Amino acid sequence: MAERVRVREIDDDEGRRLLRIIRRGSGSVVTWRRAQMVLLSAQGMPVAKIAEVTFTSDDRVRDVIHNFNTDGFDSLYPKYKGGRPSTFTLPERREIAKSKPTEHELPFSTWSLTKLADFLVAEGVVDDISHEGLSSLLREEGVSFQRLKTWKTSRDPDYEAKKARVEHPHAIADGEIIPEEDEPEVVLCMDEFGPLNLMPNPGRQWAERGGKHKDPDREPRRRRRATYNRYGGVRHLFAALDLAKDKLYGHIKPIKKRTQFLEFCRYLRSLYPPQVRIAIVCDNFSPHLTTKKCQRVGTWAAANNVEIAYTPTNSSWLNRIEAQFTALRYFTLDGTDHASHKEQGSMIRRYIIWRNKHAADEHLREVVTRVNVA
Q1: DSSP-derived 3-state class of residue 352
Q2: Number of Cβ atoms within 10 Å of the Cβ of 136
Q3: What are the angstrom distances between the C-alpha of 305 and each of 162, 172, 184, 310, 336?
Q4: What is the pLDDT of residues 1-14, one digit of tens each?
Q5: Is the pTM higher than 0.70?
Q6: What string of DSSP letters covers 112-136?
Q7: Which of 205, 317, 358, 360 lies deepest, with the highest CB count within 10 Å?
């Protein structure tokens, strides 16, 4: 039968001192946790229950109690050594950066710095670590606190073949592969963006602070117009990105059907000499396809030295134009409320001109890189 371990009898002064450490968070996280274990033991809680409450092991609770019985309050404070601080090994750094609460049967959906630091100390991964030190380690591992995004898995039976067919032109455009005689020299990623409504778009702006910082004499802050109707119809942006030149092209049209798709494809074809074979990467939206009833797309592509590579179903992330749409929305549409499609279209066209002149803009590259996964 396991030895019953219990803290020695403590007087009222020692009890108040333990409470102060716990309530005020005095000292490091390690000190706070050890004081909590000692106080729970003094209140008659068994070791197994203390371990359960503090999310640690029975052996660690016993060690803390034994040390307190021997050395008193000095045992609560970690013994720091002089000289250069210890260096975490790569496995330790990865454990710190990628561990999840659910993997350790903890009732948390995500870590806070406090919970993660407490757990790492309790499990013996590190003797002690501050919130600043933990934050630095996470940063060095490329880990940040961010919102999870949705992901739809493709059920396309030909997923691998279609994915490889799309990635091959990408590799040609990136200079990783030298195109052979019958392979495309120019690679364009193409898709439609929209529908473009005449509606107030959510966005951020610079404004004076509200709440307790508000100046009582200033005017109310500008607000977004609320709408319940969509007048004026919609528009659609046909856009394509030349991967080698990093140049964006776009046409705004009232509808997006096969006729409009082919019109834009003819425009893209006119940008390069007829003998230069081009590849157009697009999704399997019905106007892009060659069907039994309408073979115009396939016929035009074969007659004009064009290869059309379709992304697998539910895999539009393979098309690099998608990241450009995120940047367009961020820089041009967020926080706007256009009165007409002419005004909105003019702003989009001016953005495309600006974007092509400033393709190396640091903020633009940051937005695109954050979204682009293909």
Answers
A1: helix
A2: 12
A3: 20, 17, 9, 17, 41
A4: 445 778 888 888 88
A5: no
A6: -HHHHHHHHHHTTS-S---HHHHHH
A7: 317
